[in-house]
Amino acid sequence: MINNKNIRIAAVFTVLLVLGLILIMIGPRNDAETIALTRKAGVLTAETIDVSFEKVSAKLINRPVIESQQVKKGEILMQLDRADTLLAIETVKASIQQNDASIEKAKAQLEVSEKQYKRALTLSRSGAGSESNLDECLSAFRVAQASLKELQANAKSLQCELDKLLLEDQRLTLRAPEDGKILELLYEPGEVVPMGSPAVILETNRKYFDIYVNEMQANNFQAGSSVIGYAVAIKENIPGTVRIVTAAPSFVDLRMTRERGTADLTSFKVRIYVDNVDRLLTGMTIEVDND
To answer: Is the pLDDT of residue 281 over 90?
Structure first.
């Protein structure tokens, strides 16, 4: 009887062991890659841009924004000291005015010298004027022409210099290139901002998340197609658009062993951009149903 009891106990343990092994074999794996494939969930990420002063360097004198502040496109983020640039602008404007006055004077001189030359030419042809007088008038006329051309060329050069300074003055004010949120301000008022150095890190409203699918499921996601995601935290459906479908890095691939008789399966990364939703925050989890 004892033997029969032992046999029954051994049989029960054997059955439980076999059931456990079967459940392990057919049950879901809990590694990160498999979870990403089965749940098809990703973390919402926002694109960021570095905003910098273009081709100008000066002392920071005004910073009307703070970190985490929402800004609109064109809103002032920082302003550099304009004193030297404004002085250079006024100097060039004064030079332009002076040059313009010289041009008017040169035009009047050219008109006089042209009349004198034509009069000397008429007298020379009639035999009443001398050749030397004609040569002098012609020389004066040509000098007046050259002087006017030089002043006109100088006017163009001064205008180009003024336009350059006006553009530089505009660049001393840093504006938001698009709507977004201030993540970081890299300079304090009073500091000199180097040319081309990032001054503000802006989080844009372009938000996306990545999911990983196998090669069978990848056909369900085509670039440009619409996708409905589900934001777990706010319990809302979030419309999105597939932007990129590409092979995932090798460390994400499902590496199946040859002994089990299955080949390696390649994972694909699907990047989905979502519409801007007020309650949807960067870092939230969004799931996509592929069934």
So the answer is: no
